[in-house]
Design brief:
By secondary structure, the protein is an alpha/beta fold. Helix content is about 40%, strand content about 15%. It has two domains: about 90 residues, Leucine Dehydrogenase, chain A, domain 1 (Rossmann fold, 3-Layer(aba) Sandwich), CATH 3.40.50.10860; about 130 residues, NAD(P)-binding Rossmann-like Domain (Rossmann fold), CATH 3.40.50.720. It has a six-stranded parallel β-sheet with strand order 1-11-8-7-5-6. A hairpin with a 7-residue loop joins strand 9 and strand 10. Helix 6 crosses helix 10. The longest helix is centred in the first third of the chain and has 21 residues. It is globular, with a radius of gyration of 19 Å. The protein starts with a strand and ends in a 5-residue tail after the last helix.
Length: about 290
């Protein structure tokens, strides 16, 4: 078994981005600017946004964090998004999810200028991804593809099974793995909560990508020998063995499968760091006008 070290690869990518920023500054170009909107005081969202802001600083980006109270009206939030859409000095905009129940997440996502949608959630960008047009690919699926690429994992002709069909991870990664690209050309099976005989299907996987949101759902009985496992899940559970009183678990039971798989992403330290790195990559693309 070999660990797919997301921390290591993400650091490599961020160093490459930082060098690109330095080159652009020498050409009298301004640094990329990422704006993030945070509504309410969700603990997980606070952590994610703080990590993104810190990553921006590390690579030489400008970052703006706009905070709103949980009771902000949808109209006021939309007005702020439009203001950022019209600001030529801001290259990327993310609205941290989830949002309060009184706000329509789909409407908010669709209100972001597709050219600044570095999260890759806008329907236009999702459609362009399917057509292989220049676009922003959602950061987590993009991170998975980049991780496979940098570890030289052969995907062509392999059977890739995806567990989970969310619009953010499961659905887009199933499309990407089937594309005629360097990382792709897989035969892809997309499974979900209604799939029958799931264990029978996952045991056929050469590459198993799990984005279900159920801690330690996949165990040794559900995989075949030598499978490459990408664990996207992350669940915080109570623990008396850590200082914080919490620990993070993936969707895969690591200890159960570790002696049977060829590669695996750890949780934490696997897909998570790659997600932030690819968000920065998308912001750099926006600043360089690589998406149109």
């Amino acid at each position: 078994m070999k660990i797919l070290d997301g921390n290591k690869v993400a650091t490599e990518i961020k160093n490459e981005i930082a060098q690109s920023v330095i080159r652009n500054l020498k050409l009298n170009k301004r640094p990329p600017h990422l704006a993030a909107i945070l509504v309410g005081e969700n603990g997980a969202s606070e952590t994610y946004v703080a990590a993104k802001v810190k990553a921006c600083e590390k690579v030489g980006f400008v970052s703006s964090l706009i905070r709103f109270k949980e009771n902000i009206s949808q109209e006021k939030l939309l007005k702020k998004i439009e203001e950022i859409n019209c600001n030529d000095d801001i290259d990327g905009l993310i609205v941290q999810l989830p949002l309060p129940k009184h706000i329509n997440e789909i409407k908010i996502t669709q209100s972001i200028n597709p050219l600044k949608d570095v999260d890759g959630f806008h329907p236009i960008n999702l459609g362009k991804m399917q057509l292989n047009l220049p676009t922003y690919i959602s950061a987590t699926p993009a991170g998975i593809v980049e991780l496979l690429k940098r570890y030289n994992i052969e995907t062509s002709g392999k059977h890739c099974v995806v567990v989970g069909r969310s619009n953010i991870v499961g659905l887009p990664i199933s499309i990407l793995m089937g594309k005629n690209n360097e990382i792709g050309n897989c035969t892809v099976t997309l499974t979900h909560s209604r799939t029958k005989n799931l264990k029978y299907i996952t045991k056929q996987a050469d590459i198993l990508i799990v984005a279900l949101g159920k801690s330690e759902f996949i165990d040794k009985s559900m995989i075949k020998e030598g499978v490459c496992i990408i664990d996207v899940g992350i669940t915080r559970v109570k623990s008396d063995k850590t200082k914080s009183g919490w620990k993070l678990l993936g969707d895969v039971n690591f200890n159960s499968v570790k002696d049977s798989c060829s590669y695996i992403t750890p949780v934490p330290g696997g897909v998570g760091p790659m997600t932030i790195a690819m968000l920065l990559q998308n912001t750099l693309k926006s600043a360089n006008k690589e998406v149109y």
